[in-house]
Amino acid sequence: MTRRHIAYCVLTCALLGSSFTVSRSIGSFPVLTGQALRYTLAALALFALLATSQRRLPTLRELVRLGAVAATGLVLFNVLLLAALRHADPAVIGTIVGVSPLVLALLGPLQEGRRPSRRLLLAGGVVVLGAALVEGFGHTDPAGLWAAVGVLGCEAAFSLLAAPLLPRLGPVRVSAWSTLLAVPILLLLVPVTGERPRLPTREEAAAIAFLGLVLTVVAFVCWYAAVAGLGVDRAGLFVGLVPVFALLTVSIVDGVRPGLPRVAGVLLVGSGLVLAARNVGQRVKQDAWQAPRSSSAPAASPASHGNSESSSACTTGASTSAAPT
Fold first, then answer.
1. CA gap 300, 225 in Å, rounded
2. What is d(CA 56, CA 175) in angstroms, rounded to the nearest whole number?
3. Per-residue DSSP letters for 288-320?
4. Distance CA 70, CA 291 (A)
5. Does residue 302 or residue 149 have the better pLDDT?
6. In this structure, what are the phi and psi dihedrals at residue 220, rounded to the nearest 5 degrees?
7. Is residue 166 within 8 Å of 174, Cβ to Cβ?
8. What is the pTM of this model?
9. CA terminus-to-terminus distance, the chain
10. Whole-number pLDDT of residue 299
């Protein structure tokens, strides 16, 4: 169902947008150690979800791609993000990473062997412009700029590398294996970087638990379910909602009223999504990252095994995450 996949996109962006206030509480915690704890919790929860489902292990080629998802979209993304924050204002990083809807609208179809949609590219441009107005602008140095561009690349890789795996493995398995593979990579980097691990405080432990069990488990599964149902290019446009939800969260938590430019940015993001949603009820092309429909390799459709897992995970996550926030 297209509406369900759109709801997954919105839920994911809402969780990401509202998580910035939680991330503040672990700013002084060792980066690699914190991410290793986060993804360990997420992997345990995700494999628990798979315990009662049909056993389906990834092939060697799929494991390599899953490792690439973990290395770029999970490990390098977070390392570069925190590095960028040391050299650039958050607004600069948000504006650069906000280009991802346009990147996915262009590279998603090319990866699938089809021509990018002019309408989606136009919509992506409108969303990017709106997100830039919401984020605002700030100061940076060359190191912060390059780190932010790297974050953008990792953001796109998180979806592009995982998309071909979704038809056979499903959103839950892709999320489970990518988080599991991220843990040893992070632990190997700890002695290389000279980081000194320590136990988290009670506040830091609560933040890591939220990031692992809510932001990672629920958001990852919902996002990959949306990518499987809508395609990378269409789902990617909704990334523009992240700064909108972040703006709403900051307005509520910090009591800061948004200025006129940011309100205009929110309207532009909405306009871009409306433009992209024209004829959104049309069936997504069946040949895009679809495996042959057989009992051994079902395609990622609403009725498939992979999406039924993601549906229950997203529904459960939505109900449990509402209380803490």
1. 8
2. 14
3. SS----SSSS--SSTTSHHHHHHHHHHHHHHHH
4. 23
5. 149
6. -60, -50
7. yes
8. 0.78
9. 28
10. 32
